[in-house]
Design brief:
Helix content: 55-70%
Radius of gyration: 16 Å
Number of domains: 1
Number of helices: 5
């Protein structure tokens, strides 16, 4: 499922991509600064955090570590991945970040932390819409994959 952009206008602007990443990083940083040490205190929340970290490691492993990328600048040799965690969700790293940060927000018992978490979720949803359009134009069969695979929560959303 490898193709090229059909129109140069479809190629994501580096500025657009950078804005998404900066907003996401800023929200996560504010959340960590607000809460403090990024490790939950409650055993159940620690387990949830470990689950999120496991999803990150599984995702990186699926990409064979060296080929793992977090940018949207897709070179022509980019291959579509639909195995491992991508079998269950299209954006496993977003899922992992949301799992980890939600456990921190809940553990902190701070309304501000939950508000920041919801803001991060909203930014991820906008980012997903943007990336779905990008991948649909770049990978021929992406729309089939998109139709059968949830965005963030397996079998739900």
């Amino acid at each position: 499922m490898n193709s090229e952009y059909t129109d140069e206008k479809e190629r994501p602007g580096k500025r657009d991509i950078l804005v998404f990443y900066l907003v996401e990083a800023a929200i996560v940083c504010f959340l960590v600064l607000l809460i403090g040490l990024p490790v939950a205190k409650h055993p159940l929340l620690i387990f949830i955090q470990i689950t999120g970290l496991w999803v990150v490691l599984w995702t990186v492993w699926t990409h064979k570590v060296k080929k793992f990328r977090i940018t949207l600048d897709l070179p022509p040799q980019t291959r579509f991945v639909a195995k491992g965690p991508y079998n269950f969700v299209r954006y496993p790293i977003f899922t992992a970040i949301l799992i980890i940060t939600l456990s921190l927000a809940i553990d902190s018992l701070m309304i501000e932390a939950l508000v920041l978490w919801f803001l991060l979720l909203i930014v991820f949803i906008f980012d997903i819409r943007y990336e779905d359009r990008l991948y649909s134009s770049y990978f021929g069969d992406y729309s089939l994959y998109r139709g059968r695979t949830a965005r963030l929560i397996p079998y739900v959303y």
